[in-house]
Task: structure prediction
Amino acid sequence: MSLLLAFADSARAVDLRDVLTGYTFTSWSRKDGLVGPVFAIAQDPNGFLWLGTDSGLVRFDGVRFSTWEALGGQPLPHLPIRALYITQLGTLWVGFGGAGGLARIDNRVVTPLVTSSSADFVGPVNLISEGAGALWVSGASGLFQFANDKWERVGVNEGISNDGPVTGFVDGAGGLWVSAANGLFRREHAGAGPFQLVEAPTDPLRTLSFSEDQKGRVWAADLAVGFRALGQGSPVRGRDAARGYRLLHDRVGHLWVATIGQGLWRVDESSGSRSAVSVQRATVLTGLSSDAVRTVFEDRDGNIWAGTTEGVDRLVPHRVTPFADIGLVTTIDSANDGRVWAGTADALVSFAADGSEWRATDTRIPLRGITSVRGSSAGGLWATTATTLFRIRGTTSTAYVPPSAGKPVTIDALAPDASGDAWVITNSGDVLRTERGEFRTVAQLTELAGSRANAALLDSAGRLWVIYAGTKVGVLDPDGRFRTFPESSVGAGTHYDLFEDAAHHIWVSGVDGLARYTDDRFQAIGTTSGLPVGGIYSITQDDRRDLWLATAVGIVRMDPAEFDRALTTKGYVVRLRIYDTSDGLAGYPVALGDRNAVRAQDGSLWFVTSRGISVANPRRLNAPRPATLVGIDAIRADDVPVTANDLRPGTTKLEVDYTAPELTSPLKTRFRYRLEGFDTDWVDAGTRRSALYTGLPPGDYTFHVSVSQDDGRWSETEATWSFSERPLFTQTWWFYALVALFVTSVLFLAWRIRVRQLRQQFSLVLQERVRLSRELHDTLLQSLVGVALEFDAVSKSLEGPQSAARDRVIRIREQVEEYIREARRSIWSLRSPALETGNLVDALRDNGTRATAGHGVAFVFEQSGTPRRLSSNAEHQLLRIGQEAVLNAVRHSGTPSVTMHLHYDEDVVTLTITDTGKGFDPSHPVGTGDHYGLVTMRERAQQAGGELSMTSSPGQGTTVQARLPIGQRSETADEDDN
Result:
């Protein structure tokens, strides 16, 4: 209950007639990152706003608050800031509270300063200002002047007390005003001369702030009544109790008073009276962050800023005039008497110009359900409801009811012609015109029957344009021919409005964009060309022939030449200037009726918006604004601030923060950036104010960032930062060369190893082929040779008794069967079957006996030394060597006998085969052509690690000797033997 009573008391203290209007309020406080009360505000040449708070110096770009420490400047004293001033050269002067003192900041270089005598300069600084070629500092210890690089205390020898705060001010005439504990003084010339007492020290008239108006009159903040004028006769002063703290005269002449406890006041002198003033107040009840206002400031855009104990407030003067107290508006048009008429839910309301201001008149015509209103060239206006057309003249109205023919008829669209008559389109497809107080049927259009007509327009050529069925556009020519245009040329979406411009082009607006009819065809552009998303509800044109579009995002101004550029240039984005609620719109444009935008006779533009009507004066909105400058704020590499132009090797993440000061409409500011050396084209960042890159390869780069102007054009100036990312050891060219050399070496070594493996494999294959050839030669071939010899013996025995021949044939058959079995086993196990069932001695004896049997050759086997088991390979090779040597002797030597001698030494076994045959010349050995015996015997001896020798001469027989080392038999050999 106590809280409600307190609120009620506060409400009673506010005179609602004195509420400050005409501004859009926005507040920032702790929740937005602004910590502490704001005591001082200044704006630098780049457009940034600087705030002096209890927590230090803060910069504001319209979106983000950045502390001085975060900006990377040199440290400032940890003291509250009470005064800020920026010179024309951009030097920022900072005055501190608490222990007091000054600091000068040039390009983020901080220089602490005091007066010539530090003992004289104590306590907080209240104000800093310029005037008469000097810098003036007001503080608790007096008034100081800084000129010619030296400080001078002012007034101490002229009787001005320094007991308490002293405030100085230099007026436009060069005079110096000083407020001190012992009174208010002024001297004619700020730099020298005697002081004159202006006011005696009658409390509580001491002041801490002065301001000068456009007439040259000086005003003072008053701790009793808020403000007062000084000199020039009787002073003008406030009538209410208020603690005036700071004063400001803005560019249009308003006096702003920052009060301690009563909010922010705007003071205007009443016309024709020098003593009467009007006061409008902004308080917490009307949107101010706090009633305790510590400073007031005007930026270069004309916005008013109030620093309070809770934060900072921005008051943007309405560039568009809102009318938000007339109810729900559905349609609007202007009349030829200069007035503007709005159709509301309950009545027709008129507006008239009062000098340069428009005001709603007392004229209200009570008509409910108005769907359209049009001015008539013959005077008055036309208005329709769903069933009736009204002719309005003054405050009287005449009704026209369409013929019904027994069926309900509704009026869909209204279009007045040049003669002052009205054309209407009904739901039955009838086109009617008023003549002599009644309707005449102009045409009956079957295309429109049953399809609602959204809008109609009679152009200067006498053609009736119609939007019907929501998405279709048709035209009724003067000859009565009706044509419908394909959606491919006009657009497929819903259409809202028809408009004829000064060049007699027909425009159609709709949800898909904008279409223009010229040279007997429509051409259209849409959102891909930069038009706002959500559709265009209505169209009008100003005196400069710029198009003004009522859209879902606000009121949009566009040069018609932009439409042509979008048609002829692929990918072109039209340049637009958008006005929204931050500019004073009463909500956003809506499409409730058939016309939502119109130009009045004085050139002002009227739009139906969601909370009423918004009026724009193009002449005021054409005022140039300072170009927006973009700058790079902070750079971080792997979350570490970067101060050099070389990034450390191995940087994986690079963040670049950029900004552009836009204090009026920051959300309209768009950015684009490009990293030269990495990006191939600009990156459209929208409203985002940072760029992030990851995994940049080493190299040289230049970062570019650009900002768009309020008309959508990109600024000609860019902010750039050139840097290099140094490579890691593993990213240098010589590291890559080493890696390439290493890889090449590895590949070469792998190739050599592979070649060696292939050669070894080829050698093994070749050896296997040779071995198989030997096996076939020593088994199958030699066995078949033995068979051939047996058949030769049989042929000779046939000359004797038949029984002997039969016995030899049987023996040959048995030998052949044995040879077949031996060949199979040799191929299967690649070892002699004779060694499978016996030892080497027995195998040699058996092979020799079989090889000589039946050939008339005596075979003698001898063995000496202690028999020892050899490896399976050695025994196999000796067996084949012995077999080959005996068969060669039987086949080629013609010897009567063959002797085989096997001798075992401790480490060598020797096999000797001797025949007494015809011998041969060793210089022409057998082994060429189809004979490989000697070659295979030598290869077998070498494979077993031994050697083979042969001695022979013609008529002296042949001796073959194989010597193989015995060595240490391995387990593998033993296993093979088993």
